[in-house]
Amino acid sequence: MKNLMMFISLSLLFIAHAQSQDTTHVFINYELQPQLIGGYDSLIEANISLLWLPEGCSEEGKSYVQFIVQKDGSIKDVKVIKGLDNCSKADSIAIEIVKTVNFLPGRYKNEVVGTHRVLPIPFYKRE
After folding, report:
1. Is 50 exceeded by the pLDDT of residue 4?
2. Which of 14, 34, 95, 116 is least surrounded by CB atoms within 10 angstroms?
3. Neighbour-count burial of 23, counting CB atoms closer than 10 A to its CB (0-12 exposed, 13-18 middle, 19+ buried)
4. Domains of the chain from N-terminus onward
5. Judging by beta carbons within 10 Å of its beta carbon (0-12, 13-18, 19+), is residue 60 exposed, middle or buried?
6. What are the boundaries of the signal sequence (predicted)?
7. HEC states along the chain?
8. 28 secondary structure, DSSP code
9. DSSP state of 55
10. Which residues pair with 69 in a beta bridge?
């Protein structure tokens, strides 16, 4: 019983210490959203040659890419949350496009914070 109490006490102490060391917060609600440097339109224009539907994909659409904008404006944890039907190649291209962007970070209570974002990346049929 004494060993069990010691184990529980040490476990709680370890958990409390680990939680106090966590300084990474990612906000969903924020006062000033992150700003894409150059704007969304310039991102699309700069990558227009990549936005044609890849071979084997039949329908136009958008890949929605989610990521975290960090406090320094860089991004991490990039993933597609809704992609084109039966077109994983387009989703891969969308991820690569999003990995090239930088942001002015978001703010909450006048402090720079990490934030979740989603960007739609459109794909078009060749004419």
Report:
1. no
2. 14
3. exposed
4. 24-123 (3.30.2420)
5. middle
6. 1-18
7. CHHHHHHHHHHHHHHHHHHHHCCCCEECCCCECCEECCCHHHHHHHCHHHCECCCCCCCCEEEEEEEEECCCCCEEEEEEEECCCCCHHHHHHHHHHHCCCCEECEEECCEEEEEEEEEEEEEECCC
8. S
9. T
10. 75, 115
**CA 93/CA 91 separation, integer angstroms:** 5
Which helix H or strand E contains 39, and what residues bound it? Answer: none
Please provide the DSSP assignment of 99-112 as one string. Answer: TT--EEPEEETTEE
pLDDT tens column, 55-81: 888 889 999 999 999 999 999 999 999
* Residue type at 98 in one-letter notation: V
The residues pairing with 117 across neighbouring beta strands, listed in sequence order, are 67
Cβ atoms within 10 Å, residue 86: 11
Instruction: Work out the pLDDT band at 127, boundaries 50, 70, 90.
Output: confident
